[in-house]
Design a protein that fits this description.
heterodimer; A: 232 residues; alpha/beta; six-stranded mixed sheet; 6 helices; B: 267 residues; Rossmann fold; eight-stranded mixed sheet; 12 helices
Chain lengths: 232, 267
């Protein structure tokens, strides 16, 4: 009998007082087990603040009120009922009882900084693309070398050329207007991004790294600004 | 003896392939090498004219390939140099009369007897060009300091790389130093920056070239001609010698000095 009580009524101390967990069984039995448990150690329970964990039991308002009265008769104040049943919790709330043991402190989210990037794959060509050469890829294209007049580069994504671009380059061939073209020296006869075509005026100034992108429906080539672009 | 096969090509026509071939051949032969030139421009032959050998042609390249004559019979000995030969192109046929493997076979036959085999390639990137570079050990690309010629040279250099005959070496022909100085012509550096290949010669524009071509007397035979000197230098560089590039500043003649005095500041 004692063992059974232990199984059905478990008590432990928590920050907010005592937590009594009720096991399985029908409610009248459990209630009487709890009460007799308290009566056995009336001194211990006197003035205690108790939270009750009822598990799957569905309590009605009357049962809950009766229990609260019985407990308070014994100097025990019931302040919270937790239950797996939303209905029970709702009733507890109506009776002015808490249904959470403590307001869960916002857990400090210590997500590890994910510094491993996946990136996107590109094709790399390390050679000079001379007149008549053509390189087409549905992804990104990187060229280490020059793209000479008469050569063609077509990428579904971005194009990066570590060298002069004097041939025809077309980024975002499948209509991607976010595609960019950057090169150490960008002076192609024609520049295309998505469906837009730009003819660049011949430059006189010394060559500088540039990036071309679509801005307001136009292909714009600008000198690479380390302060802006580097921080992206 | 195992000859080195040198193909002279350009892509664009009219940049001076044939003149270059003739002059390098002459310069090599003057230096006591045994040289044979092959005119690869079947249907539009020129090399015989430039070398002044037109009236001696009996058999040609296509006759050899098609077995109508022996190789020896098609080889025309130069009238000035004992060690210089020409195998002329057929004028009445076209490029398809010869295949790249014919050219390789022909050159292999010639290799044993010569130091140098020079092949004058036709303009273009088709069959004739492929025939000309098929047997090549080294390829010289001729260009002029003009945007269109440089563009074609770039294309040709790419094709030579693709045929694994590279890296090609570059000859910049007909550079006018006065125009370069005025900023009206591409400089040698402009050309090299784009083409990014080894430079083997810069030939200044020289009226003597036209005169000598018309006479069938290559300028390389005239050491006073600046273009002739440039071709001689190329022949030395082909042999692997280090030769400094010509100072292309035109020397002030008496007349030009006089005009300078009369028009100070002008040219």
């Amino acid at each position: 009998m004692v063992d059974e009580k232990k199984l059905t009524v478990q008590i432990k101390g928590i920050r907010e007082g005592l937590l009594i967990t009720l096991g399985d069984g029908n409610w009248p039995d459990l209630e009487s087990a709890l009460i007799s448990h308290i009566d056995e150690r009336a001194n211990f329970f006197k003035g205690a603040k108790v939270a009750l964990e009822v598990g799957n039991h569905v309590l009605h308002a009357a049962e809950m009120g009766t229990l609260r009265d019985k407990l308070s008769e014994r100097g025990v104040s019931l302040w919270a009922i937790t239950s797996n049943s939303p209905k029970t919790e709702q009733i507890a709330q109506v009776l002015g009882l808490a249904t959470r043991l403590s307001v869960p402190r916002p857990e400090r989210v210590v997500k590890p900084l994910d510094t491993n990037l996946t990136g996107e794959s590109a094709v790399l060509v390390q050679r000079t693309l001379r007149s008549g050469f053509r390189l087409a890829n549905s992804g990104h294209i990187i060229v280490i070398g020059d793209v000479n007049p008469g050569a063609e580069l077509l990428a579904g994504g971005n194009i990066v050329v570590w060298g002069h671009v004097r041939g025809m380059v077309h980024a975002g061939t499948d209509g991607n207007e976010k595609a960019v073209i950057c090169a150490l020296d960008l002076m192609p006869a024609q520049l295309r991004i998505a469906d837009l075509i730009a003819a660049l005026p011949p430059k006189k100034a010394k060559s500088q790294p540039e990036i071309a992108r679509v801005k307001d429906g136009q292909v714009i080539a600008e000198i690479w600004n380390y302060k802006i672009e580097g921080g992206r | 003896m195992t000859a080195t096969v040198v193909t002279v090509t350009s892509g664009k026509g009219g940049v001076g392939k044939t003149t270059t071939t003739a002059n390098i051949a002459v310069a090599l032969a003057v230096d006591n090498s045994k040289v044979v030139c092959i005119d690869g421009d079947i249907g539009l032959r020129n090399l015989d004219v430039v070398l002044g050998l037109e009236n001696r042609i009996v058999y040609d390249l296509v006759d050899v390939v098609e077995g109508r004559c022996r190789l020896r019979q098609a080889m025309i000995r130069d009238k000035r140099m004992q060690e210089l030969f020409l195998i002329p192109a057929a004028q009445t046929r076209d490029k398809s009369s010869v295949s790249p493997s014919d050219m390789v076979r022909l050159c292999d036959e010639l290799r044993q007897e010569f130091d140098w085999i020079l092949i004058d390639s036709p303009a273009g990137i088709e069959r004739g060009f492929r025939n000309a570079i098929a047997p090549a050990d080294t390829v010289l690309v001729v260009t002029n300091p003009e945007v269109s010629a440089v563009r074609d040279a770039d294309r040709i250099i790419g094709l030579i790389e693709a045929e694994e005959k590279g890296p090609a070496r570059l000859i910049i022909n007909r550079l006018k130093s006065t125009m370069v100085k005025r900023g009206d012509m591409l400089t040698a550096d402009d050309v090299l920056e784009l083409l990014a290949v080894e430079l083997i010669g810069i030939v200044p524009d020289d009226e003597n070239v036209i005169v000598s071509t018309n006479r069938g007397q290559p300028v390389a035979l005239d050491p006073k001609s600046r273009a002739g000197q440039a071709f001689i230098n190329i022949s030395h560089r082909l042999r692997g010698e280090k030769v400094p590039f010509l100072n292309l500043e035109e020397k002030d003649g008496f007349f030009s000095r006089l005009t300078k005095i009369l028009h100070p500041g002008g040219a």
